[in-house]
Amino acid sequence: MPRKNLIAGNWKMNSTIPEAVVLAQEISNRMERDWLELVDVAVCPPFVDLKPVKSVFEFDRVDIAVGAQNVYWEPKGAFTGEISIAMIKNIGCAFCIVGHSERRNLFGETNEEVNLKARALIEADITPIICVGESLSVRDGGTYLDFVTAQVRAAYAGMDAADAARTVVAYEPVWAIGTGRTATPEQAEEVCAAIRATVSDMFGAEVAESLRVLYGGSMNEGNAALLLAEPDIDGGLIGGAALKADSFIQIVKEAC
Ligand code: PGA
User: Fold this and answer.
1) Can you tell me which atom of ligand 1 is nearest the CA of 220?
2) What is the pTM of this model?
3) CB within 10 Å: which end of the chain, N or C, has fewer?
4) Residue 138's pLDDT is what?
5) Under 8 Å CB-to-CB from 28, ≥6 apart: which residues?
6) CA 216 – ligand 1 centroid, Å
7) What pLDDT is stored for residue 2 in this prediction?
């Protein structure tokens, strides 16, 4: 079965509730309902915006999923400032980003934590979008394939094939995030293919063939078509270009 593209907007730490509702409403208004037969679409706003954004899509009966940008793996208790999987599940989140490079680099998230989060999400039937990607120094040093595939192996440690089949991977080279310096389609394809090969090695060809591997890092309406044309790129995790309905909608259109 061919893989259906997934376009996911990562709003990062942008949008108060009123701003988020306006953006969600604009996206809903402009989304041709036919496109959603051909492409899966999700937005990942900040925690406080999740419920209001979900309500906009529910009211409009538009099949745009909502996801969180992070979560804690413990079920409940004395973890001041954290948000549990049950909390985002209750809101109706279908996805949750884990291991974004900003979380790894600014908040010290480790491969082990990424693995704990991904496994706990799968147990709750929320699809983790597992982010991997190398820094500029690793890219320039030439070891980026080893680096990224090691991140993949660590994220999937202890999972079985059925678990792995319920995940999404996003390849996001750190040097391309928010910099306007997109990876070329060839650069992105090389790493996305290596990610798929690693998952095939760990869990078999069937899981690898059905796995969606997204590209992220300055993807926009101008470069999306060429990136999405690559055989191992099955969608995008979009930051800056997801904050404007126009550009986000254009990318969704390119992914149909
Ligand atoms: P960007 O962010 O599209 O602004 O580069 C992508 C991401 O960090 O997920």
Assistant:
1) 3
2) 0.97
3) N
4) 96
5) 56, 57, 60, 62, 64
6) 6
7) 82
Res. 83 pLDDT band, cuts 50 70 90: very high
Instruction: Note whether 59 and 86 are within 8 A (CB).
Output: no
Does residue 166 have a pLDDT over 80? yes
Q: Which residues does 94 contact at the CB level (< 8 Å), separation at least 6?
A: 42, 65, 66, 67, 126, 127
End-to-end CA distance of the chain: 16
Q: Write out the DSSP string of 138-155.
A: HHHHT-HHHHHHHHHHHH
Residues with Cβ within 8 Å of 230's Cβ and at least 6 positions away in sequence, in order, are: 185, 188, 189, 192
Report the catalytic residues.
100, 172
Give the position of tokens 């996305």.
Answer: 192
Tell me the residue type at 27: I
Q: Which tokens sit at 17?
A: 């509730």
pLDDT at 163 over 70: yes
Q: How many whole angstroms separate alpha carbon 138 and alpha carbon 219? A: 21
